[in-house]
Design brief:
The chain has helices spanning 7-12, 14-19; strands spanning 21-25, 31-32, 47-51, 55-64, 77-83, 89-94, 107-117, 124-132. It is mainly β and 135 residues long. It has one domain (7-132). The strands form two sheets. The protein has a five-stranded antiparallel sheet with strand order 6-5-4-7-8. Strands 2-1-3 form a three-stranded antiparallel sheet. The longest helix is centred in the first third of the chain and has 6 residues, at 7-12. The radius of gyration is 16 Å and the shape is globular. The termini are far apart. It binds zinc ion. Residues 25, 27-28, 30, 39, 41-42, 44 line the site of zinc ion.
């Protein structure tokens, strides 16, 4: 297996990858997207589990034409900077849209899709992507 896909790491972050579940710091409000015991900003240990909304606004986007080994078979693909109602921002892959259809300010919704696949082992990693709101 190439070093790019580590199933254990993806398993540990499954609540974030499948449900957008984060740990918000009760002291400073910082959103911590990865499993941790202290806030990345203020080092507080008062972290509260919370789900981010499944809809966000697209701030900016680009097309990745040349990717790392793990994502190479998926290139070209779209990546966007998204902002939730509370101001939290994340970077995520975009799906179900062509580059020409996207506009800054568009409302996007989260869907779970294949993120990457290891060619040798066949390990498939799923996670969230965002697409233009359908309904
Ligand atoms: Zn904090």
């Amino acid at each position: 297996m190439r070093p790019g896909i580590r199933p254990q790491e993806h398993w540990r972050s499954k609540r974030f990858r499948y449900m957008l579940e984060v740990l918000r710091c009760a002291n400073c409000g910082t959103v911590n997207a990865t499993r941790r015991s202290v806030c990345r900003r203020c080092r507080s240990t008062s972290l509260v589990r919370e789900r981010l909304p499944e809809r966000a606004r697209l701030l900016a986007f680009t097309e990745v034409k040349s990717a790392t080994d793990v994502h190479d078979e998926m290139a070209p693909y779209l990546v966007g900077l998204l902002e939730f109602e509370d101001g939290t921002r994340i970077v995520a892959q975009l799906t179900d849209a062509d580059y020409e259809e996207l506009r800054p300010g568009m409302e996007m919704e989260m869907v779970v899709r294949k993120i990457a696949q290891d060619g040798e082992s066949g390990v498939i990693v799923y996670g969230f992507k965002f697409r233009p709101v359908v309904s």
